[in-house]
Please model this.
Amino acid sequence: MRCRVVIAEDDFFQRTILSRYFESLGTELVTVHNGRSLTAVLCGIEFHLLVLDYNLPGAEVRQIFEKINGCRQPVSVIVITGDDSVGAQESIRRLSPDFLFIKPLEMNDFDDVVRRVLKSSETEYRHEAREARWTL
Amino acid sequence: MDPLADSMIREARRLFRTIRPCGTRRSLYDCFTIKGDELLMWFNTPDESTHILRRPLRGRDTTNMNQCGTL
Model:
């Protein structure tokens, strides 16, 4: 199973740029452009990484994190935002995402983090698969 | 300033009226990145939503432009 990534971003160009980037890494991709679609996806599929635009329209970010924390499989969350206000930064940090990036994305840093996250997800998946085989 | 960057800033203002630099950037001129052969301008609208404007570079000299990696 390839790593499955969910991209939640309302801006078409940013979504496209992120999609192309993750496709180049060979990940399985799901993209959503609003909170309602994201909620449906979170309830419907298993995934390894969520790339979340903090200002996603229609998204209650706290509830999204609650859903993710309730997931059976470990999920990493990268929050991206163009809002550098102190209030927004504090709110995001309280949610404890795995990583926070401020737009414009510094792609070298973003790429380093994504590769690290995907590598650890693959390792965990293999570990889970091995354990499942032993318990058969 | 670069004429292409100037025209993109004017275009963003025409489309969204009020725009401001994205994230921690202090000037709109700091909000440009290059992706492949395109120049991207990142900017925020008053609702703190981030937008991108893209224009082809078409063989321009990009040595003095901000380059934030190639996505």
Summary: Confidence is low (pLDDT under 50) at residues 129-136 of chain A. Chain A is about 50% helix and 20% strand. The two ends of chain A are 19 Å apart (CA to CA).
